[in-house]
Amino acid sequence: MMKEPIKPFATGHEELIHNVAYDFYGKQLATCSSDQHIKVFDLDPLTSTWVLNDSWKAHDSSVVKVVFASPEFGHILASISFDRTIKIWEEDFDEQNGSGRRWKKMATISDSYGPLYDISFAPSHLGLRIGTIGNDGILRVYDAIEPSDIRHWTLTNEINVLSSPPAPQLQSDFSLSWCPSRFSSEKLVVCALDQGFIYQKNKNDKFVLATQLPEHNGLIRSVSWAPSMGRYYQLIATGCKDGLVRIFKLTETIGNKSVPNDDQMDTSRDEDIEGTGSALNARNDHNNNNNNIGSGADNSLNHIHVELLSSHDDHKGEVWKVKWNLTGSILSSAGDDAKIRLWKATYSNKFQCMSVISAQQK
Fold first, then answer.
1. What are the transmembrane regions (predicted)?
2. Which of 8, 144, 205, 315 could pair with 128 as two cysteines, CB 3.0-4.6 Å apart?
3. Contact, 154 vs 111, CB < 8 A?
């Protein structure tokens, strides 16, 4: 059977598009651009084409990223920009499509001291919560005071991921991703420049450093935490300027227990438990330098061990984006080769490229 070719469509943006986001159902698409505009498109089920929902000037500088909230909170978008602001938008179904008024600005948050690079809604079971990071090297987490009223947000965590912001003349990048598991302590991974940090909530409801990702050899462009359906361990993927897609395996021990559960037995566990010492030392050093989270070891944290599961250079150039599907079984990556590659684990838990998608017209 012949595969239907990818159909391009004109967005109408006047400058570079920085980000594209689907809603939960894949029936709505948002784009943002250096032209300072956000555009939202609806999928026409009859023609399978994207129809403009609305377009509006959203920020006073390049709009870097736009994300949809979970549908249980309504039709909500969040956007960030080099103008240092976060803006929250809600769709007003009483306004006409294409009027420029269909998406109402509900809140503006302007705590950042530099351009913002990434924003992400937390998994819906954690409530209406967003995390952001920008060029000032500070991770900020905000909660909607009342999920039914998205006009008011409160800053609940503020962490200096970097001891000092990068020099403005140097290229930099920042990204974050939440742990989507309902059955694990609240965690997120933050990538700043060429370093990756995993933060975990402690008993005081504050994020503290749990461990770090192994070293990358360039700026980390993208990070994605996989849903862990059917797995006792977690997976994190990164895309890096050094041309590698990396997939990390995270195993977790509760409290001070060094013996895994029955379904976690394997021959590498002795090494896993032994390896947590260096991670804890790194965590303590990081915590001692962070005035927001206190100092010293935190016994309320689970011990997390990280190992590199595999790395792939198939893109033969810089990797700009990685993203897991909703079940955490397939990883997609995009790079300088103008191709999307899909990765899936074999029965022996080795990730292989299962498909290559090219948008180039033949």
1. none
2. 144
3. no
- What kind of fold does domain 11-172 have according to CATH? Methylamine Dehydrogenase; Chain H (2.130.10)
Task: Read off the pLDDT of residues 66-92 as tens digits, 9 standing for 90 and up.
Answer: 999 999 999 999 999 999 999 999 999
- Using CA atoms in the order 287, 293, 299, 300, what is the torsion angle rounded to 10 degrees? -140
Among candidate residues 64, 78, 56, 60, the one with its CA nearest the CA of residue 153: 78
Strands 339-345 and 149-160: unpaired
Domain spans of the chain, in order of start? 11-172
Do the Cβ atoms of 332 and 247 come closer than 8 Å?
A: no
CA pair distance 200, 293, nearest whole angstrom: 11
CA dihedral (21, 25, 26, 31) positive or negative? negative
pTM, rounded to two decimals: 0.85
| DSSP character string of 45-104 | TTTTEEEEEEEEE--SS-EEEEEEPPGGG-SEEEEEETTS-EEEEEE-TTSPTTSS-SEE
